[in-house]
Each structure stands twice: as C-alpha cells, then as structure tokens.
Amino acid sequence: MAIVMLILMNLAVMASIYLTIFLIEAFFGVRLDQGTISGLLILSFIVGFSGALISLFMSKWLAKMSAGVRVIETPSNEAEAWLVNTVAKLAKEAGIGMPEVGVFDGPPNAFATGWNRNDALVAVSTSLFDLMELDEIEGVLAHEISHIKHGDMITMTLLQGVLNTFVFFISRLIAQIIAPKDEEGNVSPFAYMAISFALEMLLSIFATMLAMWFSRYREYKADAGAVRLDGPQGIYYALAKLGQIPKDQVALPSDMKAFGIVGFLDLFSSHPPIEKRLENIKKVAREMGYNI
Questions:
Q1: Domain limits, the chain
Q2: Is the pLDDT of residue 232 over 90?
Q3: Which residues does the UniProt record annotate as the domain Peptidase M48 (predicted)?
Q4: Which residues lie across from 116 on neighbouring strands?
Q5: Fewest CB atoms within 10 Å of the CB: 51, 161, 184, 205?
Q6: Would you call 144 a catalytic residue per the annotation?
Q7: Residue 26 — left, alpha, or beta (φ > 0 → left; ψ -120 to 50 → alpha)?
Q8: Which residues are annotated as part of the binding site for Zn(2+)?
C-alpha cells in the first residue's frame, strides 16, 4: 500500500501529541472539554495539524534515513557534478532556492521533499544513470523541481492536517453518542476509547484515499511543470522507460512514494498510471506548440 509508513508515522505523531495533552490535563489541570463541540474541535485541530506539521518538518531527515541518501557536498565524479549543476540550473529557472542534492542506492527512481520551496531535497538513485540518457534524467529532475516550485509538500501537509482533524473529530463525536452510559449519563471511558479508535481506523482508510487522489492530481501538474521547465522529450521518454519496469522493482521506501517519480497503481497509489501520464504530457506539449 502506497505511503503506508508515512501514514503510520503521522498517526504515531498524532497519538504522542494526544498522550501529551492527556498528561498535561492530568498533572496540570489544563483541560479541553471533549464533551463540548468547541472543545473537541479545538483538540482535534491541535492533534491533527500538529501531526501533519511535525511530519513535514521531519521530512528531509526521514527521507535521508529511510532511503539512505548521501547528500552531495562536493561532487566526487562527473555524474555527480552534472547532477548538481542540472538541479541548480532548473532551480534557477523555476525561481526557487537551490535544493540539497543527493543520491541513494536502489532501483531507478527519484524524489523531492522538504518543508518549503527554498529548503528542499532532490535525490536520485544511482541506477537511474544506468537506465537513462542525461536528457531523460534532466526531465525527471524537472518533474521533481516542479513539485518543489508548486509547494506540493506544503499542500499535501495542509490536506493531511484537515483530514487528521476530520478523522479525530468525527470518530470521537460519534463515540460520545453511541458509547454506553451509566445511570448518571456518563460515558464509559473504555467503550468510548475503543469505539473512537475503531472509527479512526475506518475513517483513516477514506482519508488516505482522498489524500492519494490529490497526490495523483499533483503528479499530472508536476509532469506539466516539467514540460514547461525542460520541454516534453526528457520526462516523456524517462517515464516511458520506467513504464517497462515491473512496479515492485522501482518502489521507493514506503514513506517516500508520494514524492517519487513513479508509484503503485491502485486506489491507494500516490501516482497515476504511466500510460495516462504520457497522454497528459503529450496533451500539454501540443498546447505549448511541441511536436511529440
């Protein structure tokens, strides 16, 4: 399942924040009353957006750790020098700050991440140089730079925060209504937590589907951005080559799939089918006067 680890990390952060709020209430008496709509909504907002924002600010560090990225401080060969220079050129054309540039060992793929457009990371697998010509790799880099230019990491984070808030709020609101109550009308705390947890898991499935739909939409936009930055040839033929490789052989670590160049093709996928992306690139190219 696409970005399973990213979702799990987000849920873990949410759980830790909720536990912290619980401990603050228990030891310091600072309390948000979940029995009121306003109190529950404020708590849901804090937990939901805190989890998403912490995940965003940790994104570069997590990417480096999970994918084993080696940031290029000083190029050690011609390929690394070309990579840094090409990213610098595309970043300047896109009007963003120079991202960190890194490489990692693994199947052909690439990704971009970071908390803002002027403090990002672009990383490519070393095997990409074995599979593609330099102009095709440049098309891949243009795609990743387009993600950064359009602030896709921020928009995905904001969407995740809204979805987190919705899941937390609705699950607890329904739990308050249907959980068993004693003679004085007090909700059973164990039943309340069990019901709200079960509802969170169920609603998280639908929230993930919505997040992945939005991610697929942003992939089309990033492909179009690559065409505007670098022309259609590079990204088109790069994707065509990647489309010939079995899906499991181009998979990034689960927590990075949303920002890669290719992903799995199902309702929980962060990427559309490559065939549809190629058709979209041809459409954008024709609109811009290219012949492809």
A1: 1-292
A2: yes
A3: 79-283
A4: 119
A5: 184
A6: yes
A7: alpha
A8: 143, 147, 219
